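As a warm-up, study this chain.
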Amino acid sequence: MSNQVFKFHNDVDTDQIIGSQYLLLPDIESMKIYTFESLDPDFAKKVNPGDIVVAGENFGCGSSREQAPSVLKALGVKAVIAKSFARIFYRNSINIGLPVIVCKELYDNVEDGYSADLDLSAGTVTVDGKVYSCTKLPEYMQNILNAGGLIASLNKEEA
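Now compare it with the structure written out below.
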């Protein structure tokens, strides 16, 4: 099933994903409507479950707030595909169950609004009939994501 691409530039920081002024709101549901507000004020209204965020290098740099990947997941973003990620954003995304995929070629070959098919288990994304190879997540990481994140995965193991 094709999903819409929302394309962002290099060095998107956590303040651009969710502004610090919104961290005072009581929960992620209240915060998610402000996602990417400084870059695309209508993002939260336009994004649909299953859509994909594509970005350049160093996505998620800045502070270590877990709310940044959490608002994306709460909006139903299927995955973030970027040339590279800030380490703490990558880690926080895995912790909460948001797939973060490295794909060096994709960014230069898509535009905002394109349709893309992401196959997480194969490690590929298809746009306009062209298949791009992405970092294929190891099975244990796939299992963590399928469980809803690291915490959920650990809780299931304890049960």
